[in-house]
Amino acid sequence: MKLIVGLGNPGKKYEQTRHNVGFMAIDHLSKKLSLEFDKNKFQAVYGTKMIDGEKIMLCKPLTYMNLSGEAVRPLLDYYGMELEDLLVIYDDLDLAPGKLRLRQKGSAGGHNGIKSIIKHVGTEQFKRIRIGIGRPDPRMDVIDYVLARFSKDEQPLIDEAIARTAQACEKWARSPFSQVMNEFNG
User: Is position 185 annotated in a ligand binding site?
Assistant: First the structure.
């Protein structure tokens, strides 16, 4: 089984904000696969679906961003999944809006949700898809920026990035992640 986790903050007030692009990607993929989030355990909502003989679990932690690892670790343990079967989707300030970056491992890069996952799984060795949200104007506070909605100019770029992220996740069900990286990076 493969676990695909989208990072974000639960609750209406955070829906469609830059920091919730991981949730948006998971929601898009769940609709595409007709997957229901029919489980609510381990501080997360999740559901599973078979894709070409591979069981895929989509997950949205309900811990709030900075504590995401508190949901991810128990899921891995309970279902006996290895770290090589984990893929995390999240926002990245250092990438232009809509740009994707797929990696096999890496540091948290200042992202508190990733810091929490690294802390709880004990390593930086897990797959990730970063979706660019761009940087705020220097006069704007970063927290206010990530908790704001996308501009009208950014939204089409984000929608396309979310669709490509869903395609990359589906491809990972059938292909090695290195092939997925070659196709979707950039």
Answer: no
